[in-house]
Design a protein that fits this description.
The complex is a heterodimer.
Chain A: H1 2-13, E1 16-20, H2 27-43, E2 47-51, H3 56-70, E3 77-78, E4 91-94, E5 132-137, H4 150-153, E6 164-166, E7 170-175, H5 187-190, H6 201-209
Parallel strand pairs in A: 2-3
Antiparallel strand pairs in A: 5-7, 6-7
Helix pairs in contact in A: 2-3
Chain B: H1 4-14, E1 51-56, H2 61-71, H3 76-84, E2 88-93, H4 97-104, H5 117-120, E3 124-127, E4 136-142
Parallel strand pairs in B: 1-2
Classes of the chains: A alpha+beta, B alpha+beta.
Amino acid sequence: MGFPLFYALKRMSGMAWWLPSWLRRDHAYRLELGSALEYDARREGRDPVVVSASSSAARDRVASSLSELTGRVLSIAAADWREVLPDQPLRLYERDNEGRTELVPLYGGEALDLQTPIPRGVATTDPAAMRWLTEIQGRTWTPIRHRELGTRLLRDMFVSPELVRTTRDGVGYFSPGGVLIRAGASLESVVVRPTLRPRSVLEQLRAALEPHGWTSEPSDKGI
Amino acid sequence: MPTVEQKELLDRRLAPFRERGDSEWLHSFNATSGLAWPFTDAASFDELPGSIVNPIAPGGAARTLLLTAIAGRVPLALHGSLSERGVSVVNEPLRRRYRWASIVVDRRRGGQPTYPWAIADQGLATYHAAPWRAGHAAVVVADTAWDFLCSTRSSA
């Protein structure tokens, strides 16, 4: 899991490096890595750590020998890789179109006709060729992360779980969202306006479990 | 190669970028043909950079993998599409290991050339929730370049 972990951390935190065994023998890479650890990590106030998802022994060995490997005097500790996953990962959004908090009324427990944001600064030669992801984030409600729930929460708009899923902060869906998009049509005319129906924890558990033959009820202790 | 179970897990986690009814679509994707639903073909953006520097690793699939992750890569099919749109693609073979290392360690120096990822990153910016905590700078240790293909292969 070394490379995927490196890539995820690089994307989520903005600063990570990969050091498989063959690169530990690469003098040029070791020098460049040592310089980055000594100056770049310090400049941003980061704690340099060594992690591994595949071998804690290799991790500890590298942590204790990194100064020798890089030719720098480094204070660097070994850590569990789960501890360095950022609580708030960096994300790529369209510049100046990252979305704003809006008050949305509920009618019968549903938020109707939610506005799907449309890319403003980037366009394709054929408008119908543009695709993007939209995420609805609730202020006081987040769903359980399960692939069965996406279509239950955004009702009637999405018939396939391939187009919608629950996320850490809400519900994400594929945009513009229409299954059939007429060539040359504008994005404004084809983009979906989904309806969100927030469900209770129990309703979500039932939706996730019932397809597998399970039932769920609150315990008699009320928990 | 990944097992059937690993591929199924990957497919499930990729929703909504999963096309129903064709479990092989992602795994056969190799950038030799044009993109199809559900991806956006970045080569079809209205605005493209005038020139792209396409760095070429000094040898070895793992060096190429790391370089691609950091700077991107222009495969042949994309090279053709970009040329038709008037984008100049300048191949830069990285013959010296120091040059390769300086790119993949990615120290955010100013004056960087326009690498291939700039095509897809057009119009995007990095955002984070407030308050921002810089957190860690992680060195990820692994035993082989390919340990993600078989997690049980690792050794101490």
